[in-house]
Design goal:
heterodimer; A: 164 residues; alpha+beta; Glutaredoxin; 2 domains; four-stranded mixed sheet; elongated; B: 599 residues; alpha/beta; Rossmann fold; Ubiquitin-like (UB roll); five-stranded mixed sheet; globular
């Protein structure tokens, strides 16, 4: 998606600028602004980083430095449903690696890349703090699946395929 | 309005949510409406009750009947039977090992009765969205006391008597940090709460923020008063959106009630809080990296000294404590330092919250007096290892800690003892590992973690941990040599003594510690090409016992790579060239004919 040719983008940029104006006086807000930008646009393209750099009057090199430092920020688009597989210790001990393998098999896709239909992307994440339900898979922001077995993977995917 | 006859507490901790708490709550409330009971039954979503293994949990008062593992399908029955007809729904009660049912496990099971809950006193008890409920449990009394009865020196003295040490990992005496920041010169000072709970397997800070956010607001306001700060920051990791939401709500309520903001409780003391959200960098749990991150920069650690107490956020004196440490402050001030130090043992006073996870029966959060033995924690409280398996090791302290073997399980948990065993209490994560865990593989897991999370600033950590990981990869693939073991040790010691920050200084710990206690296992990998736990894929094969196989074809049907051949009712075979050792066939064989072997 090129931002230049995107009809909705004017509106999205306006939304981001409103946020930037509301926090601009505070010091050290770059990370908050990047969070907001990623929330609005889905990922942080070069063009978007340039925009943030100009609005906040922070060198682009510094913006890029921060974006690439933190795992949470992505410079690539993600799938519509982001499947986050927790790789915390408890989940690992309980076989999270097998869940990850099965997901990659089923979707035939590399980590962090969207599937060809754009419906899914798989991400390995740090401990989600639901260790008692290990292994844990989180789809989007709210749909937790606990004590997942490799065989349940296709069932979980099916749920989102049907919803599409 | 009719009087409330029943109060129903539903646990909305992280684990219960992932077990389907939301749909249980919806069905429960709909059923109440169906029978026009919504005005006499009050439903409250609480913070984590701790017994995560039993989730979703629901407790009905005034009786205190505890229902567990509820599903959306049977939530309606609790309304129809228990609330409407006064009959306990037996099949949803807690069932002990001997099959006996109990209505109130919270009064009987060691998991609950052995606990002393100070930092987690309000979890699962109050509605985290209600400031009134927090106040009803003595909330903001400590702040009142600090503002009107105690001098700033008195507060430091109380903390000194309590012997509280930082609960985030390093275990530095809390009073000393407060005192140093208080005495530091400067008009502008800051207090920070480190809620960047990064150790995999630890989730107590998440539970406190979600279940009792006001305790952090109150404690930070007290801290600000004592050290002389005007502004505070809570640095929460982005993975905890609910914690951020609850804390934001708590801060708004506290401002409304005059506990936060301008002229707190009518005094001339003003202080306010702001939330800063992390962006997924483990190193930001290190205090100076966290400070850089709040400043909007890359989260790389600074050289210490100067310590944050002297030069912290924006070069100003800054007090940093973690969530659990703060959660202990209000009750300590209300009840006195001696009250807190009555718990625990010399050098390790008070209580500590532990997160039990991994291969342990009762997973969840427990708060116990320090000095308790590992055996008591894992077996009496944790219920031991499930599935008839043998305990192999307990991993504590996350990527900065080590593994404690079964032989040392009678050790009391203290800061000193853990250090002697080559690990740390850390933030309190305890991952129990059974005989199926390969300790070389565990060490490799942690090194993968540190390699990815190293900030890249100093060479020993950035390059050294990478070299260690390469060696571990060689070993787990059967390519390791005995020289590799020595090299691994030397590298580890080198990295620990030359890295800039705590991350690098402790990164080799999981390797050093597993080498110390599980040397045989390392040797088996390099000398015999064998993985005793049968975990390392390059060193194992999955085979079918032709005498036991009845030819049911179940295994061939689940094999994702079609490595299994054989005709119906004839013994099957696995082609080791095609087999990926995924273990799917093992899980479906009902005749015990399939097993993993390592030469």
């Amino acid at each position: 998606m090129s931002l230049v040719n995107c009809p909705d983008c004017q509106q999205l940029f306006r939304e981001l600028d409103e946020y930037i104006d509301s926090v601009k006086g505070n010091t050290g807000v770059l990370i908050n602004v990047l969070h907001k930008a990623q929330e609005i646009f889905g990922y942080l393209s070069e063009e978007l980083q340039q925009h943030v750099s100009e609005k906040l009057d922070i060198p682009l090199s510094q913006v890029y430095g921060v974006v690439t430092f933190y795992n949470f920020f992505s410079m690539k688009p993600k799938g519509k449903n982001q499947i986050k597989v927790c790789l915390g210790t408890a989940c690992y001990v309980k076989g999270a690696d097998k869940i990850l393998e099965r997901l990659q098999d089923e979707l035939s896709v590399e980590m962090n890349e969207p599937t060809s239909d754009g419906l899914f992307s798989i991400h390995a994440v740090r401990c989600l703090g639901a260790c008692s339900m290990a292994p844990v898979v989180l789809v989007g922001e709210d749909d937790y699946f606990g004590r997942v077995t490799p065989d349940e993977v296709s069932k979980i995917l099916g749920k989102y395929r049907r919803a599409d | 309005m009719p009087a409330v006859e029943n109060t129903v507490l539903i646990c909305a901790g992280g684990a219960c949510i992932s077990a389907g708490e939301k749909s249980v709550k919806n069905v429960f409330e709909e059923t109440l409406k169906k029978y026009s009971l919504e005005s006499v039954v009050r439903v409250v979503e609480t913070g984590c009750m701790g017994a995560c293994d039993l989730g979703p949990i629901l407790v009905i008062y005034p009786e205190g009947v505890f229902y567990q593992k509820i599903t959306a399908e049977n939530a309606a029955r609790i309304v129809e039977e228990h609330i409407l007809k006064g009959r306990v729904v037996e099949d949803l009660l807690y069932k002990g090992d001997s099959g006996n049912l109990t209505e109130k496990p919270q009064e009987e099971l060691p998991f609950f009765t052995e606990q002393v809950r100070i930092a987690t006193r309000n979890l699962g008890v109050i509605d985290p969205l209600s400031i009134d409920e927090y106040i009803a449990r003595d909330g903001y009394f400590a702040l009142h006391k600090v503002l009107f009865e105690l001098s700033r020196e008195d507060v430091v003295e109380i903390l000194k008597k309590s012997e509280l040490k930082g609960r985030g990992g390093a275990g530095f005496p809390t009073w000393m940090k407060w005192d140093l920041t208080k005495k530091a010169e400067g008009d502008t000072k800051y207090v920070i709460c480190n809620a960047d709970e990064g150790d995999p397997g630890a989730f107590m800070d998440r539970a406190v923020l979600e279940g009792d956010p006001h305790t952090v607001v109150e404690a930070m306001t007290i801290a600000a008063r004592v050290v002389g700060a005007q502004k505070g920051f809570v640095y929460v990791r982005a993975e905890y959106p609910l914690a951020i939401e609850r804390l934001t709500h708590a801060m708004a309520m506290a401002r409304e009630y005059g506990f936060l903001g301008e002229n707190i409780l009518g005094t001339d003391f003003s202080f306010d809080l702001e939330i800063r959200i992390g962006a997924g960098a483990f190193v930001c749990g290190e205090e100076t990296a966290l400070i850089n991150s709040i400043e909007g920069k890359r989260g790389i650690p600074r050289v210490k000294p100067p310590f944050p107490a002297i030069k912290g956020l924006w070069e100003k004196p800054t007090l940093l404590n973690n969530v659990e440490t703060y959660a202990n402050i209000p009750p300590i001030i209300t009840n006195g330092g001696e009250w807190f130090s009555q718990y625990g043992v010399d050098g390790s006073r008070g209580t500590k919250v532990f997160a039990l996870a991994g291969n342990v029966k009762n997973t969840g959060l427990v708060e116990v007096p320090m000095g308790i033995t590992l055996r008591k924690l894992i077996f009496d409280i944790g219920g031991g290892v499930p599935g008839g398996k043998k305990l192999k090791a307990i991993q504590t302290g996350g990527p900065s800690g080590g593994c404690i073997p079964l032989e040392l399980i009678d050790t009391p948990i203290t800061y000193d003892n853990m250090k002697k065993l080559g690990t740390i209490i850390g933030s309190g994560g305890m991952i129990v590992m059974d005989e199926d865990s390969c300790m070389v593989d565990v060490a490799k897991y942690f090194l993968e973690f540190t390699v990815e999370e190293s900030c890249g600033q100093c060479t020993p950590c950035r390059d050294g941990t990478r070299r260690m990981l390469e060696i571990l990869e060689r070993i787990t693939e059967g390519e390791g040599t005995t020289e590799d073991l020595q090299l691994l040790k030397d590298l580890g010691e080198n990295i620990m003594s030359t890295s800039l920050c705590g991350l690098g200084q402790t990164a080799p710990q999981p390797v050093i510690s597993t080498m110390r206690y599980f040397w045989d296992e390392y040797e088996a990998h390099v000398k015999e090409g064998r993985c005793p736990a049968k975990k390392c894929k390059s060193l194992i094969q999955v085979v079918i016992d032709r005498d036991k196989c009845v030819g049911c074809t179940a295994c061939a049907r689940v094999c994702p790579v079609e490595a299994i051949s054989g005709s119906v009712r004839k013994p099957h075979d696995i082609d080791p060239e095609i087999c990926t050792r995924c273990g799917s066939c093992l899980a479906v064989c009902r005749f015990g004919a399939i097993s993993k072997v390592s030469p």
